[in-house]
UniProtKB/TrEMBL annotation:
Its main location: cytoplasm. The lineage of its organism: Bacteria, Pseudomonadati, Pseudomonadota, Alphaproteobacteria, Hyphomicrobiales. Residues 1-16 have a biased composition (Basic and acidic residues). It comes from Rhizobium mayense. This is Ribonuclease R. Belongs to the RNR ribonuclease family. RNase R subfamily. It catalyses: Exonucleolytic cleavage in the 3'- to 5'-direction to yield nucleoside 5'-phosphates.
Length: 792
């Protein structure tokens, strides 16, 4: 279907005037300097235009704005490539932005008011390397009508989380941006979390756990059952013009020394909704089992689930068999069935609103914050063994060379033949079946593995990015303390399910495109030219080359990884390649998936825990005429906004999960201050070294001021710190011995001291060192001088 994308201004607003002056946008912009229509303007004009018109900053919109055609459009493309390579602009979704700038649409948290009482927000997620998050002035509508005079204009207040359209501010003396509210995502309660500290004479103080939090006074009558050192939830009882805010204790989470409280810190710090509203719970409790309406009966097909041993929900099942068609000798038919969440979670319902607010399930070592209530996620939608369950299934046909020759979707009723763990299925294939898997070996498991071998031929030919980054897991004791950190083995059973899910996702995107149905893609842009150049310089120090320009593909990186395999640099090269990659996001505009080397890709296989998959399910139901639960026109019109929201929520979940692991490990090691550990240099900065303890998966920092009595020079290309006098230093990937100097569990921070002597740097590093000394580049000082600024 065709419609004007949301948030895009009309052509009459975006085109420069006939006399060569740009038209203002919504009265928020300053006039552009004079330009000649149809002629590529100077770099400065392009950069200014991108900064002032973020909603028009795609290559196509820039060409339209300046009237560029033919050869001029080619010149614009080359100029934008140069600006990106120079680090002057970067890609954000489908637009270009200045580095450190906010994208045209962003999720904001309203945190304070200015002197005039206007609301001020800051981006929910902001990279630390970009410094302090910019302030944004929130413009509330003075009209009761919403945009275009339809509906009610969204109104936000303190503590709310909003999706907003971003504009550069007119008043250069105030916040850098202004924003118009698109939607209030979360009307957050005036509750916050912190550590209770008793004060003499009764009462206490709330010590914030968030970097942007503030201390609060808690009067004696409002302390509840809180004791010194407890992690508590409070609500603001009174705000005055002077002094600290006063608060009232709502609940006591527990002692801050308890590791069970640590995941709650991340939940509150990131504003993750963790209590379902009564309306959503009521809908979940009232839900009835799905009917056979518009469904094929596949209950006799022996589909099985293969999941982690501790999985509570099961949203995918698989089956494979030989293709009996004479047109496809040696081919296989692979069936993937996915829980039909769209039957239970309808657009606009209370369950749907809450699922969108969460965006995805969040997984902590001690708990899961689910996207949907357990009645839906762990019961009605979970593909339980031996129980009738509704599903959307795709039957895919592959040739013996691993090429997909066709697929078809069905809305079905299925009955899982068995629930297996990855280890259980793998053991059966490896010749150690148990009582459950032995009768399944020949009719079900072996055909699945045979199909995977065929599908792997297609994967090998496609050559997706093959990074070797082991994922560590934390195992907790019954009391919530850390038992051990381990790297689970990567089994063929994992790879089998992964490849079958990838192919099902591809089939979903292809089907919806063929039906001309709008959808949310999972997209992954290639590395920016600036990141490529950093990686190229680093690899050159190891004698490894990387192709230049826009010819880099996933298999280009695989060649680099292959050259490093088995060498002392293997881990270091894997980490640097990972750092060079862009972040995958959701978008209704498709640019393909660089890492998987796929042009059409949409998340379809996990609707229980990802909202993007639920949208794709609804799109399939609607476009294929599968009955109730299809996508609505209102949803189709807001896919841009939905994609922006769930991309932000995904980053929120990742940050919360990572911080919780950091806090747990810091808590676990807090009693071992002074002990020595074997570590590896995992990061090199101007301020010092980040080191990783492989046995614990813990990261910590060594300030440069504690490295030794030498002056250390930072070499970004070689990822090294080198002593000016001795020529000895430390480089990314080095194995070192360190002593734990400090552990701060609440912050998840570890500080170490270096015990190893630096090693002699390679010739290339020493050459850089000499050149730097000749150019008198300032060196970092050793102890006895003022410690450097930056993260410690």
């Amino acid at each position: 279907m065709s419609r004007e994308p949301r948030g895009r201004i009309s052509s009459s607003e975006r085109r420069p005037g006939k006399a060569g002056r740009a038209t203002k946008n919504s009265g928020d912009q300053e006039p552009m300097m004079a330009i000649v229509h149809g002629v590529l303007p100077p770099r400065e004009v392009i950069l200014r235009f991108i900064a002032d018109h973020p909603q028009q900053a795609s290559k196509r919109e820039l060409a339209k704005a300046f009237g560029l055609k033919g050869e001029s459009r080619v010149e614009l493309k080359n100029l934008l490539r140069e600006l990106e390579e120079d680090g002057m602009v970067q890609k954000s979704r489908k637009s270009l932005i200045r580095p450190g700038a906010l994208p045209p649409i962003a999720v904001l948290d309203i945190t304070t008011r200015d002197k005039d009482g206007e609301l001020i927000g800051r981006p929910t997620e902001w990279p630390e390397e970009n410094g302090v998050a910019p302030a944004v002035l929130i413009k509330q509508s003075s009209s009761p009508a919403g945009r275009n005079g339809k509906g009610k204009a969204p109104v936000a207040g303190m503590g709310d989380r909003i999706l907003a359209k971003i504009f550069p501010a007119v008043d250069r003396g105030g916040p850098a941006y202004s924003a118009r509210i698109i939607r209030v995502i979360d009307k957050r309660l005036a509750a916050t979390m912190g550590v209770f500290r008793e004060t003499p004479g009764g009462g206490g103080r709330l010590m914030p756990i968030e970097r942007r939090g503030e201390e609060m006074v808690i009067d004696p009558d409002y302390t509840g059952d809180a004791k010194d050192g407890d992690l508590i939830e409070v609500e603001v009882a009174r705000l005055g013009r002077f002094g600290l805010p006063r608060a009232k204790v709502l609940s006591v989470v527990g002692s801050v020394a308890s590791e069970k409280a640590i995941s709650m810190i991340a939940i509150h710090a990131h504003g993750i909704p963790h209590v379902f509203p009564q309306a959503a719970m009521a809908e979940a409790d009232a839900a009835k089992p799905a009917t056979m309406s518009h469904r094929d009966d596949w209950r006799s097909l022996p589909l099985i689930t293969i999941d982690p041993a501790d999985a509570k929900d099961h949203d995918d099942a698989v089956y494979a068999e030989m293709d009996t068609s004479p047109d496809n000798p040696g081919g296989v038919v692979v069936t993937v069935a996915i829980a039909d969440v769209s039957w239970y979670v309808r657009p606009g319902s209370a369950l749907d609103r809450e699922a969108l607010k969460r965006g995805n399930s969040v997984y902590f070592p001690d708990r899961v914050v689910p996207m949907l209530p357990e009645r839906i996620s762990n019961d009605l939608c979970s593909l339980k063994e031996g129980v009738d369950r509704p599903a959307l299934a795709v039957r895919m046909i592959f040739s013996k060379e691993g090429r997909k020759v066709g697929h078809a979707f069905h809305r079905i009723m299925m009955k899982s033949a068995a629930k297996l763990s990855y280890q259980q299925a793998q053991a059966a294939i490896d010749g150690k079946p148990d009582d459950k898997t032995e009768p399944m070996l020949e009719p079900i498991l072996k055909p699945l593995w045979h199909a995977y071998e065929i599908m792997r031929r297609g994967r090998d030919r496609r050559q997706p990015l093959e990074l070797d980054m082991p994922e560590r897991k934390i195992l907790l004791k019954p009391d919530g303390t850390v038992d051990r950190v381990f790297v689970p083995p990567r089994l063929d059973a994992h790879k089998l399910i992964e490849e079958m899910m990838i192919q099902a996702n591809v089939a979903a995107a292809e089907t919806l495109e063929k039906k001309r149905q709008v959808l949310i893609y999972r997209i992954h842009d290639g590395p920016t030219l600036a990141k490529q150049e950093v990686l190229r310089e680093f690899l050159a120090t190891l004698g490894i080359s990387l192709v230049k320009g826009g010819n880099v593909r996933a298999n280009s990186f695989n060649g680099i990884l292959a050259k490093a395999e088995g060498t002392a640099h293997q881990t270091m090269v894997n980490e640097m390649v990972l750092r060079s990659q862009s972040q995958a996001i959701y978008s209704p505009d498709n640019i393909g998936h660089f890492g998987l080397n796929l042009m059409k890709y949409a998340h379809f296989t996990s609707p229980i825990r990802r909202y993007a998959d639920l949208i794709v399910h609804r799109a399939l139901v609607g476009s294929l005429g599968f009955g109730e639960g299809g996508i609505t026109p209102d949803e189709e019109a807001t896919l841009d906004d939905i994609a922006a929201e769930i991309s932000t929520f995904e980053r929120r979940a990742m940050a919360a999960e990572r911080e919780t692991v950091d806090r747990l490990i810091a808590h676990h090691l807090a009693g071992r201050v002074g002990e020595e550990f074997e570590a590896r240099v995992g990061g090199v900065t101007k301020s010092g070294l980040f080191v990783t303890l492989p046995d614990y998966g813990a990261d910590g920092f060594i300030p440069i001021s504690t490295l030794g009595s030498d002056y250390f020079i930072y070499d970004e290309a070689h990822q090294a710190l080198t002593g000016e006098k001795t020529g000895l230093g430390f480089r990314l990937g080095d194995s070192v011995t360190v002593r734990l100097a400090e552990a701060i569990p609440l912050a998840g921070a570890l500080r170490f001291e270096m015990l190893s002597d630096g090693r002699a740097m390679p010739t290339a590093v020493r050459s850089f060192h000499k050149a730097t000394r000749r150019n008198k580049t300032p060196a970092r000082k050793a102890p006895g001088t003022r410690p450097p600024r930056g993260r410690r």
